[in-house]
Every structure is written in structure tokens, then in C-alpha cells.
Amino acid sequence: MVSLIILFRLTFAIANRVRTLMKVLVIVSFFVLTGSASADSGALSLSGAAEALCNASKRLKSVYAFVQAKTKYATEKVREFEDMVELVRLKIVRVRGNEGGNGNWTSCTGIAKFLKRVGSKVNRVKRRELKRLRYLGYSAVGAAGIAAGRLDEFVSVFQQPNNRNGVEFFSCAAGARGEAATKAELHDCFQGGKTAVDAAEFLSVEDVEEKKGSQAEGRANLEEAIRRHLKLSNNDPRYTGGESQGCQLVRGSSGGGYLGNASLTTNLLWGDGIFGVKKDGVGETAYIGDTRNETYSYDMMWEENPTTNVPTLRAAMDAYRAFEEQVSEYGDIYRSLTEEWTEKTIGRRADAMKILNGLGSLPIENVSALNSRTKQDWLSASQVKDADKDLLMTEIGLCGGLGRRSFFRRMFRKAWRKIFGGNWGKDD
Question: I want to staple 183 with a disulfide (CB 3.0 to 4.6 A). Which of 9, 196, 233, 235 is the partner?
Fold first, then answer.
């Protein structure tokens, strides 16, 4: 969990450095805008483009809560199954130990074969599947953080330039009544929500986790959600269809445009391509389309397929999808482990039945029930510790007539070889 938080904060730190550079552009824009506020160029609408960006960013930040919950659940399931195997193992050796370790298949060798098969699967889940699940979780959180940072950067640059108190009015993000949008109006972007002040910072992952974390579990596919958030109702990102707001950030041509008295040489992309400005446009017309197309039919373009054509969003979708697939695969493996203890599966193995039929207080149906999601607290940590100790002493007297003295002698030899090397004390 700590690693996930560090990773998410690191990605936002990168985005913040980019945002700092963009603030320089904003300051420059203030000087240019105040000198030519009469330019006929529009602004982003609050209920359309601005809110779309905030909603999408917030949804991306909720990936952290989703990954955290899934990873925690997977880890707990492995521990639960390990405890179940140990408890069943202990009960088996106790039963056979009371019989003096005599008999047929149900001696130490048979018991070991029965449990080793399940134990090896559990180890594989821990060594491979759980490790990969965590790795893909880190990747999903990191990619989502970078994508959210680019959207926040876009909002920051367009929300700041305005002249609310000046004689000549201008803004690049229009509020509900046409005035410059405040951070309180962009409440899905900034801390404080609808009471956010001008000094408010962007929502952090912790803020989003508290408000949206419960919805992350079992929520709609991320790509579907992002596409829905970034889809404009009228396919036009401008305030009131292009009413002049004097924003030079959406004007590519010279004479009061983004570069002042010079025109852009290429189309300008904002938010990694969510929004595009035509290199020689005057900021009056806008529609949806491919922002990375060299030729624009409108002065401004809103990306029609953001999760496909915007690199950071596409990377976030791919990483999230890979994590979801691993979660599904992990679930399949866990279910196969659980089936090892069902009556139907065990009933087909006569040798396994010989063991389980002698468990007394732990019949087959109860073994299966141990893994029920409603009974996750069936074995406490203290019981596990006592079980391990009891199991060791029981197996010493049970396995193949091996006495305690012989057992410790073998263990001493193994320790000697591990510390000093060589072949001294090699087991026969």
C-alpha cells in the first residue's frame, strides 16, 4: 500500500513540474491578453469541456483505490488458504500419530504426497501470480496518475488567465454565467469541493479515495467511464457556441493569438491531445475530431476518441486492462485451489478419502467450508503459531519411523553444510 502511494505521488510530482512550466505560459498570457482582450476568441465551457476534464481526472485517480482493494484481497486469500492447509495437515498427522504412525498409504509418505500437490500450487500463486498482480497494479496506478496529471495541467492553464476585475473582460474557461470559472465551480478538480477557494490545490489520490473509493469496486470498465466523461453533449467545447471571451490560448493566428504577433507553425495540443488549436485559427469555430490530424476543419478540435488517440490515456487503459486480466486469472487459480478440498473432487480419490475420513471433527464438508468467504476468521494468528509448533513435534515421531534424535541430527548436518560448505554429513 505504501509503495502504491509513493508511486502515485511520484507521477503527480512529474505532472506538477510540467504544470510549473505551464504557469510561465499563463503569466505570459496575462500580459498578452490584457493588451488585446478584444480578440474574437472563445473559451472552454464549464458544463462541457471543463467539467469533462475534471470528471475524467477524478476517475483516473480512483484507480489507486481499486488496485489497493484488489491487491489486499488477493493477499488475504493466499494467507487464508495457507492457514487452511496447515490446519488440515496438523489434524491429519495428529490422527495418524495417535495410531502410532502404522498402516498403509496413510503413513507419512502418503500424507506428504497429498499435501505437497496443494502446497506447490499455493507457492506458485505466491511466487508468480501474486507478484505479477502487484507489479501490474503499480503500472496501472502510475499510468493513471500520469494521465490525470496531464488533464489537471490542462485545467490549470485554462482556469487561471482571466481579468475579472478589469475594465476589459476575458477568460479561457467560462463559468456558469459567462464569467471566469472559479475553482469552486470546478469542484470535481479541486480540494474543498463547492466551497473551494482560489488557493485550493487539485484533488489528491487520498481525497479521491475517501469520496470515490467505495465506487471503484465493481464499477464500470475504466475505458467506458473515461469515454463517457470526455464526451461532449453538443460536440462543442466552447462557451455558448463561440461567444467571444478574449482567450488567446485558443487562437493560433497572429495579431493577438497564442504567440502574439506570430502564428503557430503547427497545431497546438492541450492535455496531451484532448484539445487542439489550429495553427492559423482565430478561435471562433470548434467541433469534435482527430486532434492529431495535420489538417483542421475548425479553429478548435475536441478529441473524438480520447482513449484511443491520446497517448497517456491509451497507456492508462492498457495498464488497467492488464491488471484486470491478472485479477481474473488470479481468481481462476484460486478457485482451482479451493476445488482441491471439495467433496466432489476428493471423493474421486480413494487415497485422499482414507486420510480425510479419519479426521473425526473435520469431515469433508467442513474442510470445504473452511474456505468460505463468510468464515475468513476461522483460524487466528496465535492458532497458526501453535499449530506450526505442534505439527513439527508430531511429524518428528510420525514420518517413516524417524525418531527425534535422528531428526535433529539430520537438521544439524544440513545447517553445517549451509554455513561451512563441503559434503560433510551428507545424508545417506
Answer: 196
